[in-house]
UniProtKB/TrEMBL annotation:
Signal peptide: none annotated. It holds the Pfam family Hydrolase. One of its GO terms (molecular function) is hydrolase activity. This is Beta-phosphoglucomutase. Keywords: Carbohydrate metabolism, Hydrolase, Isomerase, Magnesium, Metal-binding, Phosphoprotein.
Length: 244
């Protein structure tokens, strides 16, 4: 009934874009941040940050990694700075903190909601007795889960704070998902990964997880499969009618 192969007993979900609609808010915050940065650096002829830039270099990665990866793609290198850099600092952390400030403003303005199909799927997963974890690069995951009333489903949370505290490599490395499996007490081969980010499905494949589901919210189903998804769906509720 869950659209998963029989060995699976646990589900590890990314947050933004998989469970909640906040992926679009992240994209908007990144775009404003990078466009302001590029405009100040290059003038009116700068090339704006695009959806493809977000998908290829930022989505699913820890904040500083996203800054570093995108700027590298434009031939720009900044000093790292430190986690408490002000948001106007011309450092990797400063740019990342600017994005986070904008994100919090947008979340306050727009609110947080869960995809109805994701809530339905979580209910079915919980009722089937499967373990549930959330694995995300976001450092605001606890607040987002609570605001969307999804914390009731979650038995383990590996977020950006845990990643930093434990020195885990960010997606596309599998570290955070492997930490999620350990937190739930299951072997990776018995856990399914649910991701909307290319880096995230790569992480699921690299960690030798039993099943990797790509969640296609932006028309990139083929790319999700190419990067490691066993299956791509447009909504988690689609899995309830899928035969594995």
């Amino acid at each position: 009934m869950l659209g998963l192969p029989e060995p699976i007993t646990a589900c590890l979900f990314d947050l933004d874009g998989v469970l909640t609609t906040t992926a679009s808010v992240h994209m908007a915050a990144w775009k404003q941040t990078f466009d302001e940065f590029l405009r100040a650096r290059e003038g009116s002829g700068y090339r704006p940050f695009s959806q493809d830039d977000y998908d290829q270099h930022v989505d699913g990665r820890p904040r500083a990694d996203g800054v570093r990866e995108f700027l590298h793609s434009r031939g720009i290198t900044l000093t790292e700075g430190s986690a408490d850099d002000p948001s106007d600092a011309q450092t990797v952390n400063g740019v990342g903190n600017r994005k986070n400030d904008l994100l919090l403003e947008l979340v306050k303005e727009r609110g947080v909601s869960a995809y109805p199909g994701s809530v339905r799927y979580l209910e079915e997963v919980r009722d089937a007795g499967f373990a549930i974890g959330v694995v995300t690069a976001s450092q605001n995951a606890e607040a987002v889960l609570a605001a969307a009333n999804l914390d009731q489903f979650v038995q383990a949370r590996i977020d950006g704070i845990v990643v930093a505290d434990q020195g885990l490599r960010g997606k596309p490395a599998p570290d955070s998902y492997l930490a999620g499996a350990r937190a739930l007490g299951v072997e990776p081969a018995r856990a399914a990964v649910f991701e909307d980010a290319l880096a995230g499905v790569e992480a699921g494949r690299a960690g030798a997880f039993g099943f990797v589901v790509g969640v296609d919210r932006v028309g990139q189903a083929a790319a999700l499969r190419e990067h490691g998804a066993d299956l791509a769906v447009t909504d988690l509720a689609d899995l309830l009618t899928t035969v594995p």
